[in-house]
Amino acid sequence: QLQASGGGLVQPGGSLRLSCAASRSIFGINVMGWYRQAPGKQRDLVADVTSGGTTRYADSVKDRFAISRDNAKNSVFLQMNNLKLEDTAVYYCKMLTNRGIAYWGQGTLVTVSS
Fold first, then answer.
1. What is the pLDDT at residue 26?
2. How many CB atoms are located within 10 Å of the residue 16 CB?
3. How confident is the model over 16-38, as pLDDT tens digits?
4. Are 45 and 59 contacting, i.e. CB atoms less than 8 angstroms apart?
5. β-pairing, 55-57 with 102-104?
6. Following DSSP, what letter does each residue of 29-97 receive, concatenated?
7. How far apart, in whole angstroms, are the C-alpha atoms of residue 47 and residue 66?
8. Given this model, what pLDDT does residue 60 score?
9. Is 22 helix (H, G, I), strand (E, B) or coil?
């Protein structure tokens, strides 16, 4: 029900903007976020934002990534700047409702390579 887009191949130091939108209206979304999973590793939180606007970032992306959301469109975005080789991963969006129901996107691949 979530469709993520914006991944691709970028050189180190480059930028990408990921987008994720719900294909239908989801009632009561509280937290929207982005996770990533590199080959052979677990899926980890990158950043999330509450309905009140409180954001949280992984230490590795602070000051480089920025998360934002559009509540009217049930959408979440991730602006990624100064990308590094270690940012290479499949990025997944997630939306969590007030009732604890989690929705996941299908993943979008980000490859940082020279």
1. 86
2. 21
3. 999 999 988 888 999 999 999 99
4. no
5. unpaired
6. EEEEEEEEE-TTS--EEEEEE-TT--EEE-GGGTTTEEEEEEGGGTEEEEEE-S--GGG-EEEEEEEEE
7. 8
8. 97
9. strand
Kindly state the tokens that stand for 99.
Answer: 């009732």
Per the listing, tokens 């969006």 go with: 93
Q: Are 7 and 109 in contact (CB under 8 A)?
A: yes
Gap between the Cα atoms of 93 and 21, Å rounded:
9
Summarize the confidence of residues 9-18 as an average pLDDT.
98
From 64, 44, 63, 66, select the one nearest 55 (Cα to Cα): 66
What are the C-alpha distances in Å from 20 to residues 15, 45, 70, 85? 17, 15, 10, 23
What is the distance in angstroms between the CA of the first residue and the CA of the last residue of the chain?
34
- Each residue's pLDDT tens digit, 89-103: 999 999 999 999 999
Amino acid at 64: R
Token couple for 12: 């180190």
